[in-house]
Specification:
The protein has 137 residues and is an alpha/beta fold. 40% of the residues lie in helices and 20% in strands. The chain is built from 6 helices and 5 strands. A 5-stranded parallel β-sheet has the order 2-1-3-4-5, with helices on both faces. Helix 1 links the parallel strand 1 and strand 2. The longest helix has 17 residues. The radius of gyration is 14 Å and the shape is globular. The mean pLDDT is 87.
């Protein structure tokens, strides 16, 4: 299952990509929302994780990322960002995370989205079935 990570902090996103890969996901890292939209047209992700400042500057582009059925948009920031997410954007996201502190929560959220999509039959069943009781690294 694909995951798209969007933002300017390549070191943070590469670390997240490694975490996603070790949990059975196929992470794709891009730096712009336009690249994310193009990538999502090829293979729709279960989650698109977007830098909050980037999403606030271009909310239309952030919300136009095509997601897999049952997929969601999530935002992240580094904790030092004082900005407030506009209400229109808040209603479109499943979570707003402080990374890297909430990395484990992000992985658990993604597993939950993937498991929910499998149960309701919205996606093809991959080789690995996510369960709520599955241990995380």
């Amino acid at each position: 299952m694909d995951v798209i990570l969007v933002g300017p902090d390549s070191a943070l996103l590469e670390g997240l990509a490694q975490s996603f890969a070790s949990n059975g996901f196929n992470p794709r890292v891009v730096s712009t929302l336009i690249d994310a939209c193009e990538l999502a047209m090829e293979s729709r992700p279960i989650i698109a994780l977007v830098d909050r400042d980037l999403a606030v500057s271009m909310p239309g582009d952030a919300m136009s990322i095509q997601l897999a059925a049952g997929g969601s948009l999530a935002l992240y920031h580094g904790g030092d960002s004082a900005g407030v997410t506009p209400l229109r954007l808040q209603r479109s996201v499943v979570a707003e995370l402080v990374l890297p502190l909430e990395r484990t929560r992000l992985i658990a959220l993604t597993k939950s989205l993937a498991g929910r999509a499998e149960v309701v039959g919205r996606i093809e069943v991959p080789a690995h079935h996510w369960t709520p009781d599955e241990l995380m690294p």
